[in-house]
Amino acid sequence: MGKEKCPCCHRHCSVDELSCGRGIEHFGKQDVNSAPKTLNEQVIMDLRKCGHMLHHNRDLNANNILNSFSEDELNKLHELLSKFYNSIH
């Protein structure tokens, strides 16, 4: 079986030889020196990862993903994501 390929750009690099920041971030292979240094950077990185995963994996069953959250967590997540979205639009 072949090595896993990166889906983040047109090059589709091997996971062992990633050549773009998006691939490195996607697979969590950041260099210690390029790791997020603040909570704000980590939150933005997490939002990008989630957005990328949802965009490129359209066959995911959202209900299966959301079943792991309590109703309180879903309400809080909705509130926070709405606040984030409204702050950029």
Q: Would you spell out the secondary-structure blueprint of this structure?
A:
Layout: H1 21-26, H2 39-56, H3 62-66, H4 71-88
Written account of the structure:
- This protein has 89 residues and is mainly alpha-helical.
- The protein contains 4 helices and no strands.
- It is globular.
- It starts with 20 loop residues before the first helix and ends with a helix.
Comma- or semicolon-separated keywords:
89 residues, mainly alpha, globular
As a percent range, the share of helical residues equals 40-55%
Q: Using the CA coordinates, give the radius of gyration.
A: 16 Å
The end-to-end span amounts to 45 Å
Structural class per helix/strand content?
mainly alpha
Estimate the global geometry from the Cα principal axes: globular
Structure annotation, total helices: 4
Could you give a short description of this structure?
This protein is mainly alpha-helical.
